[in-house]
TrEMBL record:
Keyword DNA-binding attached: yes
Keyword terms: DNA-binding, Transcription, Transcription regulation
Keyword DNA repair found: no
Protein name: HTH crp-type domain-containing protein
Amino acid sequence: MQSADQVERWIERFPLVRDFSASHLQLARGTVAFPILEAGAIAYELQDSCANYLMCIDGRTRVFRMSEGGREMLIYKVGAGGTCVLTTQCLLSGGGFPAQSVAEARTELAALPSDTFRQLMRESDAFRTFVLDDYTKLLSGMFDLVEEIAFAPLEQRLARRLLVEADVDGIVWKTHQQLASDVGSVREVVSRLLGEWADEGLVEVRRGQV
């Protein structure tokens, strides 16, 4: 059962909801759910059907593909105020989810059922504009990822990932294996690079953090 606080936080995180007509707001509020994913919980498995349009209110999920050899390749992450481009693609095309998605931290989502999503796409200019603009922006980000994987050396990918993941104190709270998954490499190579950077005084390596 949704609470008034959940609805208010959803609207605060996604102001477009305020632009809905009275009937569309009633539809959205009457069908939206607010699932909670604990850290490590699975949001989508490979080829799952997409039953909902997901809007991240708080937390973070990672979307990735696993190779036949068991190597994980990060595609993108969805944080507070974000949506999942592959979920949108699934809802628009009717196909299955082409990757896997797991919560990295406790994550609260607003989930609009597929029927509500399609009705709002047909009838609400505000919702349709938001979805298509967001989809275009996220798709552009995926092309940047493809370019980075194809052309950027591993050292550059790892350095960028450390900068993205660092908190306000400059600490990355990740293991070498998690960083390796993020940059499409293996733990041994990432550990070697971090060790070299530590010797040069560029980073400090501790257990579970850099």
